[in-house]
Automatic annotation (TrEMBL), chain A:
The lineage of its organism: Eukaryota, Fungi, Dikarya, Basidiomycota, Ustilaginomycotina. This is GTP-binding protein ypt5. It comes from the Eukaryota.
UniProtKB/TrEMBL annotation, chain B:
This is Rab GTPase activator. It comes from the Eukaryota.
Length: 225, 452
């Protein structure tokens, strides 16, 4: 069957930030989503600038998440404003077995509502749902009610047995304003409002400059030796 | 924080954050603290609330110039040279991934009571209103000489040895007028005073080449600037450090630098009743002003006066540029140090739309520092509000080799980050006992991999 010419498939890039108390499983959720792995004794996050993973919404549309981990900077009131900057979406994680972790999640959500882009999509994730039958401390209804009041997406997840992990990210992808995503074929490493020029060189996009592209150009015309 | 680290770093200025990142990447266990609740130390960018808290405690910020969160006002005025060392460091460490940059729209210089664009090529020199017809020809020859210079080819040297002949002699060789020497030496080579004239010409040659190659890179000016303000630079390097395991604590009172009673060697840092131990400390001068163990650790080399000015219009006579660097060479206004004006605007996400932030600064020469800024302030037109500060430029008294207390330098009065990178290299050599800092390219691909 001859395919009728349709619009080119598009890959749209969005910046997603993770927030939540230490040890609720922020990195584990991402590791499950990006690499489908889980490690019972994961150390605190080391060495990850950010990871990327794609979600296909339809044959024509793929969402590429650029996922930023806190790198531990949330621990002592030290998360830099840069972290939220231009974030299109956030996953705020709590641990269903730790009552205090939901309070902490609520504090992060208030912080996002104050600091981040007003249109940011926020998802609340109650992680460690595999322990629901034995160690649950926060009833699903409680978090669900809060999420509804604050207009958040909500799911209980398990990075360990992968319950609802890809569902969570797909749910976010469906809610994203796709017209605002930057075209990842062209964009650089940053989410949201990418200003870098395609393919390097000196032609800036909307007045932005790409240092890396320029570097290659520079090597060609370096003559001051 | 009651733990033992390889190094404790005090202050989150860009110098300290780069060193923190470099050490973390090497696998060192780092504790990085700042007494302020924000990143950046002396080179932070503040929102209006923070700015008013700092300069006018108790006074509410104005409500008629946009939202608080739209502001990121730099405490020091600096731009990055597009081809400079800090740019290379950002590219090498991949910190560029966290930042976006924009060109500064134009580079201006003051001459004979007027301002004009700085010419950076022989073609621009020919068109520049800065020089008369005959001077243009001489300047063209001078720029051609610089562009064609080749160390290996004596035919390009015109009998001048850059390593022994003074810059003054080189200018004289081409018969350049004093005013032309002013703008070349101060607005292109970016010297702060005239001492360069007597030194070998090589240094000035290299600075002019840095200027022209930076200019050639993106076209409008040799300068680039991070969106959301200079404070993004330390934040970017701090994130890199954290990614490699560095621990960050802001808003942390530093009460004591603890040293060994007998040897005087660094042992740790006390905050309240907690003590963090480490084999060395690196910090900005503000943490060592009280001295350590009865010994002075930093000295003042000069004072710099800066006026942060909020404007509702671009600087007059700059072609409505959204950002400029404007240099008033010392001789033009009878001073010994240049006056710098750095302007950015809403287009750089550092203030509300249609607002312009101009910083006027110079090295203090008299006991009325604010008055010294007058020639600069007079070029700005009506000023909506102005914050004037005088701060000390400080440097460490000793290398820190014996007591393992390594102190960085204050951010100087230069208009760019080149000397900051020199300081990073210097501290690195002191910390490592003489190793040269060689940047290794981080692996490519989508960020670094997670290491379990």
């Amino acid at each position: 069957m001859a395919a009728t010419p349709r619009q080119n498939p598009r890959m749209l890039q969005f910046k997603l930030v993770l927030l939540g108390e230490s040890a609720v499983g922020k990195s584990s959720l991402v590791l499950r989503f990006v690499k489908d792995q889980f490690d019972d004794y994961r150390e605190s996050t080391i060495g990850a600038a950010f990871l990327t993973q794609t979600v296909s919404l339809d044959p024509q549309t793929t969402v590429k998440f650029e996922i930023w981990d806190t790198a531990g900077q949330e621990r002592y009131k030290s998360l830099a404003p840069m972290y939220y900057r231009n974030a299109n979406c956030a996953v705020v994680v709590y641990d269903i077995t730790q009552p205090s972790s939901l309070d902490k999640a609520k504090a992060w959500i208030r912080e996002l509502q104050r600091q981040a882009d007003p249109n940011i999509i926020i998802a609340l994730a109650g992680n460690k749902a595999d322990l629901a039958s034995t160690r649950r401390a926060i009833p699903t209804e409680e978090a669900e009610k809060y999420a509804a009041e604050e207009n958040l997406l909500f799911l209980e997840t398990s990075a360990k047995n992968s319950l609802n992990v890809s569902e969570l990210f797909t749910m976010i992808a469906r809610k994203l304003p796709l017209e605002q995503g930057s075209d990842s074929q062209r964009g650089g490493g940053r989410g949201g409002s990418s200003l870098v020029s395609p393919g390097g060189g000196g032609q800036p996009g909307r007045g932005g400059v790409d240092l890396r592209g320029g570097q290659q150009q520079q090597s060609q015309d370096a003559c001051n030796c | 924080m009651d733990e033992t680290y390889d190094a404790i770093i005090l202050g989150t200025g860009v110098t300290e954050c780069v060193l923190s990142a470099l050490l973390s990447i090497q696998g060192k266990k780092i504790l990085h603290m700042d007494a302020n609740s924000w990143y950046g130390g002396e080179c932070a960018s503040l929102n209006l609330t923070q700015l008013y808290n700092k300069f006018r405690p108790g006074q509410e910020p104005p409500t008629d110039i946009g939202r608080d969160r739209d502001y990121a006002i730099d405490l020091i005025p600096k731009f990055m040279m597009a081809n400079g060392e800090l740019t290379k460091m950002l590219v090498h460490t991949d910190v560029t991934r966290y930042l976006e940059f924009k060109q500064i729209a134009a580079s201006y210089v003051y001459r004979d009571g007027k301002i004009a664009k700085v010419p950076s090529t022989e073609m621009e020199a020919v068109r520049s209103p800065l020089m008369g017809l005959f001077e243009k020809r001489r300047a063209k020859k001078f720029f051609e000489f610089l562009q064609n210079w080749n160390d290996q080819d004596p035919a390009t040297h015109q009998g001048l040895d850059l390593d022994s002949v003074s810059m003054e002699k080189v200018f004289a060789h081409f018969g350049l007028e004093p005013g032309t020497r002013d703008f070349i030496g101060h607005a292109m080579a970016l010297h702060l005073d005239d001492s360069f004239m007597q030194r070998p010409a090589r240094e000035t040659y290299e600075r002019i080449i840095l200027y022209t190659s930076s200019m050639a890179r993106y076209g409008k000016s040799p300068y680039i600037y991070p969106l959301y303000g200079l404070g993004e630079l330390p934040q970017g390097f701090a994130r890199l450090s954290a990614i490699y395991g560095g621990t960050y604590m802001l808003d942390k009172q530093i009460d004591e630098i603890v040293v060994n009673a007998e040897t005087g060697a660094f042992e740790g840092v006390r905050s309240g009743d907690e003590v963090a131990k480490a084999s060395m400390v690196i910090g900005d001068p503000s943490y060592f002003r009280k001295g350590v163990n009865g010994k002075d650790k930093v000295r003042e080399t000069a004072k710099v006066v800066r006026a942060i000015c909020i404007l509702k219009h671009p600087i007059p006579n700059t072609d409505n540029s959204d950002s400029v660097q404007l240099i008033i060479p010392q001789n033009q206004v009878g001073r010994k140090h240049d006056i710098y004006i750095a302007e950015v605007s809403g287009n750089h996400n550092v203030c509300a739309k249609d607002i312009y932030i101009a910083q006027v600064s110079t090295i203090v020469e008299t006991d009325k520092p604010e008055l010294e800024l007058r020639p600069g302030l007079d070029l700005l037109g009506p000023i909506y509000d102005k914050f004037v500060t005088v701060s000390s430029l400080e440097e460490p008294i000793d290398s820190g080799r014996d007591d393992k207390i390594f102190i960085t330098r204050s951010y100087d009065a230069t208009s760019h980050f080149e000397t900051v990178v020199e300081d990073i290299h210097d501290v690195w050599a002191r910390v490592t006992g003489g190793e040269k800092l060689v940047l290794k390219k981080r692996e490519d691909g989508e960020g670094a991999q997670i290491q379990g």
